[in-house]
DNA sequence: CAAACAATAT
DNA sequence: AATATTGTTT
């Protein structure tokens, strides 16, 4: 069965649980990559009919743009796939207009490059005031906003509010500090995602989906079929809960019953927890305090028509599991570089990342060199913040790693291109519609196995969570495999992080390299006038109306 | 076959 | 209400 996910022009994808090349409908709807970090298979524009023929490899580099009118128009991205590349950039819609905000120019620099690598249209700035100015001046010029959480004066959250509520744009928050409370605050205040620095290319490839999802959600809103009325209960006691499933099974057999089913409510409508709905839910939970939040009370607060207590209970169950896991990972001791002991006097071994954030940062750090061990070891947020204070921006660990990953990506891509030009005939490009699903699936898994151990850029220290999706840990026996995978990932990172950091020191002359590039990139976009704080308040007030 | 998710059972 | 299990979908 071919599943179709439609958004205006129509985006079509095959289904889920594949290895790397596909993203399922559900994953798209939730604006994140697929179960296994998949990428969209095919993406094209135009009406249904025009899409009848799948993309062919002949049309290359169709530049897709997003019109200034605000209407999203994603031109078909070239569907061809170069097998030698693991993360083919072709599948990202080009020209997505991203507003990138982070007060660390080094990070902006690296991140900007990464985003442009995805062929997005990036505008960068280092101050919230600039960002707001840009948003206001060029209304409808941006599709999505990415911002660091910890900007001066709660700027990240202000920006979230203004861009999200005021301008209706999806906002992605970023930070190296991913304390649960921070993530929660971001998400409950409307962030559509929270990316934990260091950020990998793969995490950027799919951010456009947030734009799509936002519009999708606007379209469907929340419509439950209203079959929870008196019919069932007034049936004279004949209808019992346990019968429902049987009835459904029988419905396919008897025509008469089928008719009834059709009329009364086509398949027992399921609640779709949209972003909005979920946010209402979270809001209610927060209001009650998490430990006092019970389905009934939540339901009362939410005031959503048609929503049942069972619906809420089910969601709450998932939500709790999600939170448990989130806090579990965040409190996990994190490995740090092996040379830390030399810098800060803490005796060898490993230490835990400090979770406290700004206030715990020591003042004397500003005297140390940018690449000093302590600057690296202090945790991304800490380093960034201390440099902010001293006036001269430094490179935090997260930025370093981002840069490294970006470099690695570039190298790999270069290698891939080379290989491609060398052996053109040997390329394994499948005819678009040629092979059967079965065959293609088999091929995919074979490829995945082959490359699995090579790709260092994919190593991630944390799992990315995006709402409203929770991993399904219900059903104990079914989840074992997944947890194993998670563990595998973490230990893989543990083994490699030291190597990464040592590589940084040796291979890259970071301060010089980035400073020059940052300065250059900066001049082009940083010209917006500085805007005083009251202007922000003004805008805030405006957006509240 | 896996994974996500919501309904349903206990 | 909390948790476990099942059904359905992708």
Automatic annotation (TrEMBL):
Keywords: Activator, Nucleus, Phosphoprotein, Transcription, Transcription regulation, Two-component regulatory system. Coiled coil: none annotated. Residues 241-257 have a biased composition (Basic and acidic residues). Residues 47-70, 229-257, 348-394, 425-455 are annotated as: Disordered. Residues 56-69, 372-394 have a biased composition (Low complexity). One of its GO terms (molecular function) is DNA binding. It holds the Pfam family Response_reg. InterPro entries: ARR-like (IPR045279), CheY-like_superfamily (IPR011006), Homeodomain-like_sf (IPR009057), Myb_dom (IPR017930), Myb_dom_plants (IPR006447), SANT/Myb (IPR001005), Sig_transdc_resp-reg_receiver (IPR001789). Residues 97-212 form the Response regulatory domain. One of its GO terms (biological process) is phosphorelay signal transduction system. Residues 267-324 form the HTH myb-type domain. The keyword Nucleus applies. NCBIfam families: myb_SHAQKYF (TIGR01557). This is Two-component response regulator. The lineage of its organism: Eukaryota, Viridiplantae, Streptophyta, Embryophyta, Tracheophyta.
